[in-house]
Design a protein that fits this description.
The chain is an alpha/beta fold. The protein is built from seven helices and eleven strands. Helix 1 packs across helix 6. The radius of gyration is 18 Å and the shape is globular.
Amino acid sequence: MRFLVTNDDGLESVFLHALVDALREAKHEVYVVAPKREQSWVGAAKSRTRPVHVASVDRGLGCPTWVVDGTPCDGVNIALGHLLPATPPLDAVVSGINIGLNASLGFIIASGTIAGAWEGALHGLPAIAYSQDLTTEVYDQLKAAGDRPDAALRTTLSISASHAARLTPVLARATAPRSFVVHNVNFPLPCQATTEVRKTVPAQVVVPGLFTPAGDDGTHRLIFRHGDDLSPAAPLTDRAALAAGFISHTVLDYRRLGAA
């Protein structure tokens, strides 16, 4: 099958490379377009007021690769409209693997990873977003190491990528064209080869107070919070599935927005 892969952590992300490697090892045809710099929490933003530059680059991925100085949606839109061959058609747009979870309503709406997949859905294609849950300690260690995973995290990442390579063609084939559906998949930490997938709904999490008080220079800075989970006991939510050690699979059907 043929897939366009993007992310919001940037082209250099080891998590993106793990996904591409796994898809190519499964003998799929892969194209990559990813941001030049991290674009986390930008949602479905597009660069409205400035031109966007895209360049073909070689990052050792073994497939056509472009870097974009804009958002994930910029890259996917430009790639589908101007960079990829028109035939044969793509089978899906795949986004990730994101560094950290994208679970619960607040994180789903804000996620640049999910938005990159959503841009594919806006073009009528099946769309899949993958994210890797991390503890705060593991995330901080990763950042302190320059985004180079230690052995334990690299093992989990490799297994998660293998799950993604297995799930991607299945989810792509199960999704009708022009269905406005994004499959949101989150991997637990740790993730094992035997870890099971559970169908989930987005957790109802409120996330107040994401910015610090104003500093001496008058600026506010983003601080990460998991938020407060207000979800009922059932049905199973994405956050609850991850906490129980399962892979969470949430079907985001955007046609249902506003449904009575």
